[in-house]
Write a structure and sequence with these properties.
CATH topology: Cytidine Deaminase, domain 2
Structural class: alpha+beta
Strand order of the largest sheet: 2-1-3-4-5
Helix content: 25-40%
CATH architecture: 3-Layer(aba) Sandwich
Number of helices: 4
Strand content: 15-25%
CATH superfamily: Cytidine Deaminase, domain 2
Shape: globular
CATH class: Alpha Beta
Radius of gyration: 15 Å
Distance between the termini: 39 Å
Order of helices and strands: HEEHEHEEH
Number of domains: 1
Bound molecules: zinc ion
Number of strands: 5
Length: 140
């Protein structure tokens, strides 16, 4: 079980995951590492497909692995993109993150080598996420 104790450690997991990216079409490699509330790291990479719409982003792969293992609360995500400047998560990933993470959720973005890092919150990227009322919830 992988653990992370700092943003730098989480970023290293994201950079490492980038190396597993399957990106034969775009050559745009991304790695992500999500930290659960109890300190476990789940890493993911982008997985492209000939049918481009089926491509999976690294962020959603990492989150899906954690959710599939029973985790529902998260402390941070780190994203490493194969670019000279840190890349932002796409809208689909932000919406999926908003399902499980508060608006204050830290989002660390870095480059292939992890040399340039930027820190945001989920709110910075997606201040008004789409929300459905969960079955059994009271009206607001
Ligand atoms: Zn995405």
């Amino acid at each position: 079980m992988k653990k992370a104790s700092s943003p730098q450690s989480l970023l290293k997991h994201a950079v490492k995951a980038l190396k597993n990216a399957y990106a034969p079409y775009s050559k745009y490699k991304v790695g992500a590492a999500v930290l659960t509330a109890d300190g476990v790291v789940y890493a993911g990479c982008n997985i492209e497909n000939s049918s481009h719409g089926l491509t999976l982003c690294a962020e959603r792969v990492a989150l899906a692995k954690a959710v599939a293992d029973g985790h529902r609360k998260f402390s941070a995500i780190a994203i490493a993109a194969g670019t000279r400047t840190p890349a932002s998560p796409c809208g689909a990933c932000l919406q999926v993150l908003s399902e499980f993470c508060p608006t204050t959720f830290p989002v660390y973005c870095t480059t292939t080598e992890g040399t340039v890092t930027r820190e945001f919150t989920l709110h910075d990227f997606l201040p008004h996420s789409f929300k459905l009322k969960k079955t059994g919830e009271d009206e607001d």
